[in-house]
């Protein structure tokens, strides 16, 4: 944490918070983490056990006795947490001694004080389910990585900002205001990370990712439990950039036992089950071949960003029959996959461990459907990194190698053997039979698969939402390349722009042509209030989604980072 002021200034600043107003229980800082990590997974829109929902204020206060402002003892949210662990009504449920545990006394007190003070809950705040923390938050396993990835780079022997070091026990506890065991509200280490992100004292400072809600909650628990720090533990700065990947692509590739060059002979369509849910998705075989990628120079509708028609050869692959829906995407995005397993009491498997190790996004700041619909609708607003990570998670979940298509694969599948502007012909007046576009979409995306498929049987290749491909956007050449390009891919090396294909519900007919392409922009995150902007969400790209492919031939270990998140993806993220 890069402290901008001297230690004495920090002491003065923190003393400001000794006022009673700061000691009052705050919903965002104190209550929200408790509910998200302990309650919401079983009490939300799509899993309302006991007909109780705790994800929004409206539903949390809908019952007569769940939250009774100023009366904690009459509020089941509080009094059920005080029951003996063997009581069938105790919350959180205590069913498996090895993984379940009651709320800690500090958490019970926070709920009690919050309700007693009136149970203030800002209307706009929507809670998201987060996994429970381990019973014991040990320093080496949980706290050391948080400090090394977020704080130590500016506060260790080689770089001591603000006269503060956090690399050894001796220095971290040299003053009682840096870490006050048992008192997170008296600990600068935690307090400064909970400030509004536009506050000049907020830590980590601008240019760095804030601590995730889980990391903050973990840090608070560690301090409340006494802030145990083995004196032998010495910390060193660690790059945070690669932690976004969780399990690294090459490691997952090895764990899944992929064999480079292996070809699946049974090249037919299939339905992929996701065993932890009731969901399936269909994959269609796309026999590779040579085609004309891009648009001819004489095409009066070709845009300046389109490739000039060139011969390209692609290999065999399967492609998703439909765009990825919210139903599928949220299994990874908000960890419903794991929640489903726990609810169904499914026996743990290696696939569970591998898929759980793939990093999940931070919670979105708002409803990413923007009121356009969820069930059966295409998932939107994800960054290309998020789409790649979903593919990596899906591979871990199913044992098959899934990824985004290259631009060449996507266009080959879209054209489906045709040479016309659209896969059905050249007449834009016929577009409404095949696409959701600006003229018929009613200004929002629609459920997948309602229009006619293309000749390969793929739905919504024209319109509904633009779809991510793997390639970096580079200005097209004004000359046709000689020869035939084989499986071309422009691997990304900058964050913007990257390519989306196919047009959307918010575009006219020209952008729905098979050769149309568009580059991503930083403006796609304009409404994101986070500092820095999220690596997971494009809050203004309500017209962008994706579908998956599966190559018939397994790539080599060296090639895997062309398709799953790579070092280039992370290095392209603005400096933290």
What features would you describe in this structure?
By secondary structure, the protein is an alpha+beta fold. It has 2 domains: 1-238, no CATH class; 249-571, paralog of FGE (formylglycine-generating enzyme) (Alpha-Beta Complex), CATH 3.90.1580.10. 24% of the residues lie in helices and 9% in strands. The chain is built from 17 helices and 15 strands. The chain has helices spanning 7-15, 20-23, 27-38, 57-60, 76-79, 105-116, 139-150, 169-172, 188-191, 213-224, 249-255, 326-333, 336-344, 350-356, 384-398, 407-415, 567-571; strands spanning 43-44, 47-48, 155-156, 159-160, 270-273, 280-286, 289-293, 310-314, 317-320, 466-472, 485-486, 498-501, 517-519, 544-545, 549-551. It has a 4-stranded antiparallel sheet, with no helix packed on it. Strands 13-12-10-14 form a 4-stranded mixed sheet. β5 and β6 form a beta hairpin. α3 (27-38) packs across α6, α7 packs across α10 and α14 (350-356) runs antiparallel to α15. It starts with 6 loop residues before the first helix and ends in a 5-residue tail after the last helix.
């Amino acid at each position: 944490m890069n402290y901008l002021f001297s230690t004495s200034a920090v002491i003065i600043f923190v003393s400001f918070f000794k006022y009673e107003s700061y000691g009052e229980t705050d919903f965002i800082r104190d209550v929200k983490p408790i509910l998200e990590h302990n309650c919401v997974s079983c009490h939300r829109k799509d899993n309302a056990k006991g007909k109780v929902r705790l994800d929004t204020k409206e539903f949390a206060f809908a019952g007569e006795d769940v939250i009774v402002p100023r009366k904690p003892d009459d509020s089941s949210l509080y009094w059920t947490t005080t029951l003996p662990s063997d009581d069938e009504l105790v919350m959180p449920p205590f069913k498996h001694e090895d993984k379940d545990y009651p709320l800690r006394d500090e958490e019970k007190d926070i709920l009690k004080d919050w309700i007693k003070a009136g149970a203030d809950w800002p209307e706009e705040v929507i809670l998201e389910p987060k996994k429970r923390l381990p019973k014991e938050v040990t320093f080496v396993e949980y706290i050391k990585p948080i400090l090394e990835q977020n704080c130590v780079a500016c506060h260790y022997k080689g770089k001591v900002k603000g006269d503060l070091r956090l690399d050894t026990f001796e220095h971290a506890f040299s003053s009682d205001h840096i870490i006050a065991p048992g008192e997170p509200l008296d600990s600068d280490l935690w307090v400064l990370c909970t400030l509004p992100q536009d506050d000049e004292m907020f830590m980590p400072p601008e240019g760095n990712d804030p601590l995730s809600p889980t990391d903050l909650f973990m840090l608070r628990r560690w301090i409340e439990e006494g802030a145990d720090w083995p004196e032998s533990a010495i910390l060193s700065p660690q790059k945070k950039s690669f932690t976004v990947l969780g399990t690294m692509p090459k490691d997952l590739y090895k764990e899944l036992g992929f064999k480079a060059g292996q070809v699946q002979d049974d090249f037919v369509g299939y339905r992929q089950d996701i065993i932890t849910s009731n969901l399936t998705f269909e994959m269609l075989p796309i026999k590779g071949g040579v085609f004309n990628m891009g648009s001819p120079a004489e095409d009066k509708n070709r845009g300046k960003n389109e490739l000039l028609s060139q011969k390209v050869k692609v290999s065999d692959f399967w492609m998703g029959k439909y765009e990825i829906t919210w139903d599928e995407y949220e299994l990874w995005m908000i960890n419903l996959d794991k929640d489903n397993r726990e609810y169904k009491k499914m026996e743990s498997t290696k696939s569970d461990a591998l898929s759980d190790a793939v990093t999940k996004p931070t919670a979105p700041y708002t409803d990413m459907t923007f009121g356009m619909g969820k069930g059966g609708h295409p998932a939107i607003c994800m960054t290309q990194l998020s789409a790649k990570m979903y593919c990596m998670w899906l591979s871990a979940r199913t044992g098959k190698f899934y990824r985004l298509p290259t631009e060449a694969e996507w266009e080959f599948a879209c054209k489906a053997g045709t040479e016309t502007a659209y896969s059905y012909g050249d007449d834009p007046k016929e577009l409404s039979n095949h696409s959701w576009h600006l003229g018929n979409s009613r200004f929002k995306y629609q459920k997948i698969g309602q229009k006619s498929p293309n000749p390969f049987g793929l739905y919504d290749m024209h319109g509904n939402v633009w779809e991510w491909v793997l390639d970096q956007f580079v200005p097209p050449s004004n000359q046709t390349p000689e020869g035939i390009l084989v499986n071309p891919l422009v691997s990304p090396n900058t964050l913007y722009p990257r390519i989306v294909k196919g047009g959307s519900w918010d575009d006219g007919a020209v952008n729905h042509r098979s050769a149309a392409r568009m580059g991503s922009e930083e403006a796609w995150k304009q409404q994101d209030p986070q500092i820095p902007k999220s690596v997971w969400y494009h809050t203004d790209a309500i017209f962008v989604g994706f579908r998956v492919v599966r190559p018939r031939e397994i790539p080599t270990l060296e090639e895997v980072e062309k398709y799953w998140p790579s070092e280039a993806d992370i290095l392209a993220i603005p400096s933290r």
